[in-house]
User: Fold these one by one.
Assistant:
Number 1:
Amino acid sequence: MEKSEFGVVGLGVMGSNIVLNLADKGVKVSVFNRLSKGKKNAVEAFLRGEGAGKKILGFTNLKDFAQSLESPRKILLMVKAGDAVDEMLRGLLPFLSRGDIVIDGGNSNFKDTARRLDELEDSGILFVGAGISGGEEGARNGASIMPGGNEKAWGKIKPYLQKIAAKLPNGEPCCEWIGGGASGHFVKTIHNGIEYADMQMIAEIYQTMRKSGKFSNEEMAEVFEKFNRGKLESFLIEITAKILRHKDENGQFSLDLVLDAAGQKGTGKWSVESGAELGSPISCIAEALFARFVSGMVEMRKSGARIFGSECKFNMPSGAMGAVLENALYAAKIIAYAQGFSILSAASKKFGWNLNLGEIAKIWRGGCIIRAKFLDRVTEAFSADCDLENLLFSEFFAEEIRSSVNSLREVSSLAAQGGISMPAMFSALAYFDFVRQTESPSNLIQAQRDFFGAHTYERTDAPRGEFFHTKWE
Ligand SMILES: NC(=O)C1=CN([C@@H]2O[C@H](COP(=O)(O)OP(=O)(O)OC[C@H]3O[C@@H](n4cnc5c(N)ncnc54)[C@H](OP(=O)(O)O)[C@@H]3O)[C@@H](O)[C@H]2O)C=CC1
Ligand SMILES: O=C(CO)[C@H](O)[C@H](O)COP(=O)(O)O
């Protein structure tokens, strides 16, 4: 039997589309999916359906699957994150040889990836944790891929991963080696965290327009379409306009029938946990995550509305709103991304990953959910200064913030006065105003800590690192 060049485990939404993408590029692929009682044979269904007539070999037995692959084996796991990855690794291991490569392409917790790298070290299996973004469409036509882990694998898997990656207008693939350890999955986690902040901020703008009482769904779609022709050009803005325009078979706006309780699968939570562990203030991501939690408390919100009323308004003439909201969203978005890149930098230092932040912004420029025009400028900023302390301090973004932050102030204060909840955008402004304070109020916090717990404090008139205690009473 002619052997396949590449193997994919898991024929769900992502796996099946990646297989089709590889097959389109002329790669001979073997696929595996488990057989489950009472469920159709996914391999058979795939080979008869979308996979028909392509160079794809299908298996429901891991030994046969492994034996169908040329050496060194290159296997991509596209299964549910968590136990399924460990189960598949355990199942595959007896049929693999030293030098074979296993790539976990799911949204795995980077701590699991670090553990798996350790566990596989002695086996000689080269393990890679690759974040993949772009959803179904990206998997099929070009995704943003963030591989990290055992670097010895990179040369062997690079041609395949770069083949299925999205391409920038200059032809460069949105896939480059991220770094050692769990860096690939960490970068994907923060990508998703930024995605949470971006989505929440867009939702806050939608709510502002909706609650101003001046915009229909179609008019809001027009506003977002206009945003998408300017500095906010991005996939999330583009799909927001499409969602707003969509009507069901009864002519009703589909969005109006979607329950306002946002789900989540874990990457936002892991981002926020990492923010706390690394001491990195990713407040926009945290607020976006917490907003999803509050949104899920549907009954609690009904009680809140009964007790306090749910009226809210936004007092601005409709003709002025588009431009002000655009600038406010732009400022908030830059701040959220700056926080995201700061945590990448903090993790890079802590784990010795030597992340290239400009390159990461480039990989996110195509294929992924947070792809956006302004990421070109992020790449430029980190290329000009790879040790940039904060993205906001780069020449370009400092100027962009200077010219847009007053809109964020105006929108935030009108929203606060009118009772519109804007957790992510308010937190962006609070962060911005904090990072430009030479005199923060935290002297008081230190004094309070010293008062009640003798925790000591540093003094403004002594070198850093010298600690003092005062008897305050
Ligand atoms: N959907 C998306 O937009 C994106 C998803 N991802 C990530 O990619 C991975 C796959 O996602 P997606 O394709 O959407 O998921 P699906 O739910 O469509 O498919 C999941 C796949 O995992 C398999 N699987 C589940 N549990 C086990 C198990 N215990 N043992 C073996 N196989 C198992 C399923 O097999 P079976 O059919 O037999 O249950 C199926 O093949 C996830 O980690 C996800 O977070 C990443 C980027 C985007
Ligand atoms: O990885 C993704 C996109 O980049 C997935 O779509 C992910 O499921 C999104 O996260 P959540 O379900 O928590 O909103």
Number 2:
Amino acid sequence: MISSEYRQSNAALLQIKNVSKTFSYADSRQNHTVLNKVSIDIKDGEFVTIVGPSGCGKSTLLNIIAGLEDPDSGKILVKGENKTSTDPGRLVIFQEGALFPWLTVLENVEFGLKLAGIPKDEQRKAASRFIDMVQLSKFADSYIYQLSGGMKQRVAIARALAIDPDILLMDEPFAALDVQTRDMLHNELLQIHEATKKTILFVTHNINEALALGTRVIVLSPRLGNIKREFTVNLPRPRDIDSPEIALIKRQILKELEEDFQFARKGNTIAGAAQQRQI
Ligand SMILES: Nc1ncnc2c1ncn2[C@@H]1O[C@H](COP(=O)(O)OP(=O)(O)OP(=O)(O)O)[C@@H](O)[C@H]1O
């Protein structure tokens, strides 16, 4: 829960400060610097999308923010507090919802609440509220294996919301779904954002998805291991992805990424780029 003083202070809820991460490989002499001093401030209630080509470090950044992975240097601050491990205040929803197939929808959503020691009747009340919010009330007693991919992702969203995190971290949660289901879930997620005012950080390699959802779109570059450019999208949502305004921003994003696509096609890494600059 965020205090009213904190809301009034207008400070960033989440601060990513100079985060760097390099992976080394036993079978290769080359290291791969995926994130190179990345800094982002996110305010309470913002819906920020991060877009970038496959392999640019989106998941690595999200995992570091969630406390699932350690940065080599840099810090993650939430409400000004340094965070170094996972906690229910920062929850990730993955592409595969990571649900328990042997439990029902209701039991899955109640699970985290049970772990948090919430009394049984409150568990039921909170779980039912969020199952209703993702429009799955009729399926509360269904088992996960009986659900479609889109329904599973709705359960994952309900389960995360029930725990009332400060920040919802979403790692390409709709990437495996068909286009119609994805569009439907975009609209549902926007309604949920409107209703709950949760802070959401959503990563995707899909520019349309980033532009449909985000009030701010951050373009991550694998060549820089950092932010290439940031766009504020001051257009009402739900948005018409084919509108001239969106098409204009999309062209700008593609232009920003063109260099990176060429760079990635050559199989380069940031370490390689640094070496090239020295030559
Ligand atoms: N644990 C790890 N060990 C070694 N290399 C890793 C590890 N995790 C990620 N990488 C490498 O870091 C780079 C960035 O990976 P990451 O998954 O963060 O990218 P991404 O932008 O999320 O890609 P995608 O859109 O395909 O999911 C990739 O080259 C990947 O192979």
Number 3:
Amino acid sequence: MNYQSTRGNSPVVSAAEAIKLGIAPDGGLFVPTDKVTITYEELANLVPLSYGERATFILKHFLTDFTEEELSQCVDAAYGGQKFDTPDVAPVRSLTGDLSVLELWHGPTCAFKDMALQMLPQFLVRAIAKTGETSHIVILVATSGDTGKAALEGFANIPGTSIIVFFPQEGVSEVQKMQMVTQEGQNVHVVAVQGNFDDTQSGVKQVFGDVDFTGTLKEKGYRLSSANSINWGRLVPQIVYYFSAYADLVKSGTIDLGQAINFVVPTGNFGNILAGFYAREMGLPVKRLICASNANNVLTDFIKTGTYNRNREFFKTTSPSMDILISSNLERLLFELTGRQSDKINTWMTELKESGVYNVDQNTLNMVQSVFWSDFATDKETLATIKKVWVQHNYLVDTHTAVAINVLEKYRQTTGDTTHTVVASTASPFKFNSSVAGAIMGPEALAGKNEFQLLQDLSTFTGWPIPRGLRGLNRRPVLHHKVAGKNEIDQAVRNILL
Ligand SMILES: N[C@@H](CCOP(=O)(O)O)C(=O)O
């Protein structure tokens, strides 16, 4: 399996090279050159396996320049030991006969990003060796809260690498911020950006595209790479949990093998739901992928109309990880759905960059709508959903997961489709505890309390334990104080590296 750029102007590379580079030299995103198909029998064979065994099976189809032994070492290092607080890694909980929740937040940083970011450093270390790379790899990350901490946790003290995480100074939860600024490790840097996530991601992408700067870095012995979902090495481990959830539902007798299900995914940068799309393309029986947005509903509008327009107000919501107006991975989806027409992708991405808007043709829109459905939830609806799920099911969800559940209700009301649906639960409710506590305990419970006091209150009220990774967070020393203007991201990289 090789990898090509969505923009069509970069050489085809191996998986190891694609993972090492992170983003294609022409500014596009790497996608597999060939389609992978999983047969009915292979799907059946996944059912009795452990999460790690399922992962190794899926990964080997995409990372063909890695041996099966290497992949199973990567899997053990990522998901083995005590890193995840359950041996199931990503368990599925059934709430009703037609609704299950895929809990993706049992890793060290309490968000779904751990599913891939415990793995990516393992891939990268091996990719460096495979490609004979001699430069020190510098991982640049733009985060709206979850990727940053998960990447720091994954890459801390990984030999041959450094990591610089940029986060919007006022655009993440208190818990997310503390998780990042208290990160230990000799090779980690964290910078608060005076701007929103889109400013941060655009600034980081600009650094990747600055040929003079990357040339200077090369001379000094540095090569840039990415731990965002623009890196294929981030996406491929995420494909696994769609298969694993399906296998678990078959194993529990909730569905029959071959029966189609839906997934509803809270969506920001479009990486998670895109992994679901690739799983579907591989033959996983998925009827609909429901794309759930918050008030930053650029994707909802796009999926309904075919117009992507980022020229709109940017809202700070209670689901900050999804406060995004430029969803990077949509580029990969459009590449696949247009039959891999790089010229169209180049046109749309140039229009997006220059005017903030592009329109896809009717045929492409039809293709999008044949797989995806989308709507959004306001903050008020999100908090009401958290309360409703708690009261009806005695089950706690975070704000992002609540957005997904609210949008699923809208989907069912609109379409009448009662297909069994899996909600991708992307973060622990304790990560967004003031919103969650306010929703279920009432706003008066928040009075005079900071997020860290509320961790304990939420745990006492619900009987749910505070996740290991969040205990004592407020007592950890703040180790990172750097701040950059939204146009100073390249300068921040220079200051750190040169
Ligand atoms: N929601 C993300 C934003 C970056 O997305 P990624 O999937 O490309 O890393 C975050 O939490 O940082």
Number 4:
Amino acid sequence: MSALIDGKALARSVSEQTAETVRGLTERLGQAPGLAVVLVGNDPASEVYVGRKVRECRKVGMRSTEHRLPAATDEADLLALIEDLNSDPTVHGILVQLPLPDHIDAGLVLDAITPDKDVDGFHPVNVGRLSTGTGGLVPCTPLGVMMLLDTVISDYRGLDAVVIGKSNIVGKPVAMLLLEREATVTVTHIETRGLSEIVRKADIVVAAAGAPGLVKGFWVKEGAVIIDVGITRVALPDGTTGLMGDVAFDEVQHARAVTPVPGGVGPMTIACLLSNTAKAAALSLGEARHRLSV
Ligand SMILES: Nc1nc(=O)c2c([nH]1)NC[C@@H]1CN(c3ccc(C(=O)N[C@@H](CCC(=O)O)C(=O)O)cc3)C=[N+]21
């Protein structure tokens, strides 16, 4: 039987550490670290996530402000809000919930966030810092993936890691973090030929394709460690809906360890957002600049 990697429990312990860090920061800052969350439009899934982020922030003693803008908001108005948040000394972290409506250029918006307040780690400066291993803010989901892997792997050197998915949010940054640990990294995606054979060689599989049930049991090597980043709402036979990962969970008992969906990567994404916000607050004090947090 494969071991279950409990993302909920790990997220709790990461958040407890963050709460401790926040106590010290609050003293040095003279105020609690603050996160600004920007939501454009009213996508129901985004509303749930944003609500959860704001609630979790408060639990660890940070302030958070929500900026809800109508779906028809002009790009220029959104950019003006970002400018205000950039120059607001009570705001240490800025998160613009994705996806943005089609008429807004997401790249332009992400470029406008001050890199040291970019708690998502999506700004090109942070992407560059990650790819050169020179610190900066690291995207939350990839950070969570590494912490989950760290519960079962201590030495990554020479291990074969396969990442499925090449997004800027998960696939590419996860690949960078695994390379930093000296794993041999193969990045694959939906156009990759012979994907099952490539995955079968892997000691570590990070599935982030957003394709429910893509990774079958026979794709997975005995003893591999699997992190399932996929989270898709699917219709169930009983007429209700449920969340499904990218991995055929019931077929991978021969793996060494696997994360569940839900209860795996999702809670870690939020815990890492909180720790990134604490890190951004430390950056505002001139602390922690060149340290990679993983
Ligand atoms: N700027 C930006 N940053 C993000 O980090 C970001 C974003 N935009 N847009 C959407 C995605 C998605 N995302 C999730 C966060 C938590 C769970 C999560 O907590 N999931 C739980 C429960 C899920 C449920 O019950 O609906 C779980 O997997 O156990 C999932 C997904 C952050 N995202």
